[in-house]
């Protein structure tokens, strides 16, 4: 494996000194880029794009050709694991992901197997290997998975949801069934992420998109507990380097101290939490990633730069900050505004690292 030409991102995750704040964007390979839309059309549909290693590699690298980003993130989807469990994932135009066979009772859960990452999910590992090779050590590659709770919400609801009634009904009325499902998912995510690391991912991230819909008690029991199980089982060293792990719970600002206690290296922070508050709550035990509101990219480049300045000042001096949006970039954003955002971080952040 080639040595890294730019390891700012990995160093920042480990709270090591960096000359500026590294930056990447969630969903940086995606629909806001015309070149992505062209490849998506060529692939036919979203999952066909995910399952073609060359095309997944191409869209992973597209944002790096446009912008001086400090990391690449594997182009894939959080629902690859439930799909590999045989739930029949498909995408309806304008409605997002759906499952042909949602999981609604303990019998269905008992039938679920833990997918073999090199078999049922081999296409993801092929993509990781292809991307890692094509990056030529330019920047590190991030692997990722959805959290058990987040995957469970889609599996039980059968797709996207606004009120989470079916998954919460199972959680409260049949907690035994929910714990069985979450345990199987935790095992699946652990082996999936470890396989990504073995294939060449140099850092991994767990996206807990729906942890924020839970009460503090239920968050600890049904989300954090299973992310802890994953963190405990992850490979933390490869290629002679530490493999940093980031947890991100959307709307999870209240639980940052609990999340930091899992033994991860970094936490994602969305825009509903001030970075200064987040930093004091985690007592500088972990790095922090975030946290600009993605909608800010609709504003003028000057306003974007002002926001970058505010966020850098909020985190303050010192290391351990990775600049990012508080969630994924919106499809309608002008790529030039994304460029202005990245440029502002390059311009303004070195002052915080002297």
From TrEMBL:
Listed GO molecular functions? uroporphyrinogen decarboxylase activity
Its annotated compartments are:
Cytoplasm
Q: Any one Gene Ontology biological process term?
A: protoporphyrinogen IX biosynthetic process from glutamate
- Please indicate if the UniProt record lists Cytoplasm as a keyword: yes
* This enzyme's EC code(s): 4.1.1.37
Which residues bear the site annotation Transition state stabilizer? 77
A cellular component term from Gene Ontology for this protein is: cytosol
Q: In which pathway does it act?
A: Porphyrin-containing compound metabolism; protoporphyrin-IX biosynthesis; coproporphyrinogen-III from 5-aminolevulinate: step 4/4
Instruction: Tell me which domain of life the UniProt entry assigns to the organism this sequence originates from.
Output: Bacteria
- Membrane-spanning residues: none
Query: Where do the Uroporphyrinogen decarboxylase (URO-D) domain residues begin and end?
Result: 22-31, 142-158
Quick one: which residues bind substrate?
Answer: 27-31, 77, 154, 209, 327
Q: Which UniProt keywords apply?
A: Cytoplasm, Decarboxylase, Lyase, Porphyrin biosynthesis
Q: Which reactions are catalysed by this chain?
A: uroporphyrinogen III + 4 H(+) = coproporphyrinogen III + 4 CO2
InterPro entries under this entry?
UROD/MetE-like_sf, Uroporphyrinogen_deCO2ase_HemE, Uroporphyrinogen_deCOase
Q: Give the main location.
A: cytoplasm
Function, as annotated = Catalyzes the decarboxylation of four acetate groups of uroporphyrinogen-III to yield coproporphyrinogen-III.
Instruction: Kindly state the subunit structure of this protein.
Output: Homodimer.
Know the name of this protein?
Answer: Uroporphyrinogen decarboxylase
Q: Which organism is it from?
A: Pseudidiomarina sediminum
